[in-house]
Amino acid sequence: MFIQVFNGLVNGAFFALLSLGLAVIFGLLRIVNFAHGALYMLGAFVAFALGQALGLGFWPALILAPLLVGALGVALERGLLRRLYGLDPSYNLLLTFGLTLLVQDVIKQVMLSRYAVSSAPYTIPQELVGATNLGFVFFPTYRLFVIVFALVVCLATWFVIERTRVGAVIRAATENPTVTQAFGIDVSRWVTIVFGLGVALAALAGVLAAPIYSVEPYMGSELIIVTFAVVVIGGMGSILGSVVTGFAVGVLVALGSALYPPIANTLVFVLMALVLLLRPNGLFGLPEAK
């Protein structure tokens, strides 16, 4: 049972990072980024490609891949999404869905033509190979690292946005852009930064997932569906809610898989339905997230 809980926390780490990125983007920009799963996959692929082309290992890729994919997110916001602000949200949804299909197909073709594989393994760093004795169970060291590292990143992101001057500027720029602009703050720049941050978090989750699940073009397809459910359960736009619910849902799915595998993923949507019935704004939802 302890093994299942810790495996659930590993999956929860990915749910938390992905839902955190979605919550940052939606909570501050009101954009539903359906391409989030593809950008998660792209983070894993960029880490793999950096290793193949430049011989870079896991640690440099853990920094460079999220930065590169985050920069792509900045370009997408500047070049495409910005043109849709003020229009019906369905336009953003259709655009990001189209981007998902495009990114997945491009990466699929690149992997087949350049590497002659449809799925590629990614090596665990030597420092994290093996298992760690926790006193009551031996657990893979790399998976423990994923849990701790993801938790630190999530809490750091929450702290910056909710408890620092930079976070106050970001919230002001996105919640009341007219007044913020009057104080001489470049609102458009902060909107771009926030979107890039959300994309970078998705890419970071992809790099962390690569040694566990391997790199393949559709690795984010199923995960993103559960991630959207996590965001709804935690509360649309709630950063803390996304982190807490992400880890909790990971454990729930793992325990469900151990007890009765056919209902493991269904449990998430049952929980989502119950939460929406009892608390329409989600467990940690804010009033404006109605």
Automatic annotation (TrEMBL):
Gene Ontology BP terms: amino acid transport
Recorded topology in the membrane: Multi-pass membrane protein
GO CC field: plasma membrane
Compartments in which it is found: Cell membrane
Listed transmembrane segments: 12-31, 61-81, 93-112, 142-161, 190-213, 225-252, 259-278
Superkingdom of source: Bacteria
InterPro entries: ABC_transp_permease, BCAA_transport_permease
Any one GO molecular function term: transmembrane transporter activity
Name this polypeptide is given: Amino acid/amide ABC transporter membrane protein 1 (HAAT family)
